[in-house]
Amino acid sequence: MTSEFLVGAARSGKSRHASTLAAESGDRVIVLATAIAGDAETRARIARHRADRPREWATVEEPYDLANAVRRHAADGTVVIVDCLTMWLANLHYGVDRPTDRERELDELVGVLDGPPGRVVVISNEIGAGVVPADPHSRAFVDDLGRLNQRVAAVCDRVTLLAVGLPLVLKDMR
């Protein structure tokens, strides 16, 4: 059906915009949450995101197998919000729960987003606009997320940059 990509800085309004898009559709909504609640601050963020969503929306926690989760849940009449690629990629980079072939996982996700079976709204952070990180692990993560964001933007029907809560449509192929 369609895929939409929302990208922007932290606290730029991406999740709020995704929620608005999903609510306006009137369809069933499933949020695929990728964060792992490893500390109190992350648990608080997750709780805030849950509290901000309508109660009837389902939340599925999927920190690793995102491509299969999108396949399972995206269908006609359902909007799937992926919140977010940044945390998912961090899980693949730094997670200890599951060994992974990161490139295969990225290829699978991009393949699913290139013509998903339903409506999918994908959220990611733009983290490469600042200073180049000092350590090699952080540089590799920033580089990988930048490449992933480019690949996702290339296959999604619509790409919107969020800045200070305002959406700027960069691509619209719908």
UniProtKB/TrEMBL annotation:
Keywords: ATP-binding, Cobalamin biosynthesis, GTP-binding, Kinase, Nucleotide-binding, Transferase. It catalyses: adenosylcob(III)inamide phosphate + GTP + H(+) = adenosylcob(III)inamide-GDP + diphosphate; adenosylcob(III)inamide + ATP = adenosylcob(III)inamide phosphate + ADP + H(+); adenosylcob(III)inamide + GTP = adenosylcob(III)inamide phosphate + GDP + H(+). One of its GO terms (biological process) is cobalamin biosynthetic process. GO terms for molecular function: adenosylcobinamide kinase activity; ATP binding; cobinamide phosphate guanylyltransferase activity; GTP binding. The active site is at H49 (gmp-histidine intermediate). Pathway: Cofactor biosynthesis; adenosylcobalamin biosynthesis; adenosylcobalamin from cob(II)yrinate a,c-diamide: step 5/7; Cofactor biosynthesis; adenosylcobalamin biosynthesis; adenosylcobalamin from cob(II)yrinate a,c-diamide: step 6/7. Its EC number is 2.7.1.156, 2.7.7.62. Gene3D superfamilies: P-loop containing nucleotide triphosphate hydrolases. It holds the Pfam family CobU. GTP binds at residues 8-15, 33-35, 50-53, 61, 83. It is an enzyme of class 2 (transferase). Catalyzes ATP-dependent phosphorylation of adenosylcobinamide and addition of GMP to adenosylcobinamide phosphate. Belongs to the CobU/CobP family. This is Adenosylcobinamide kinase.
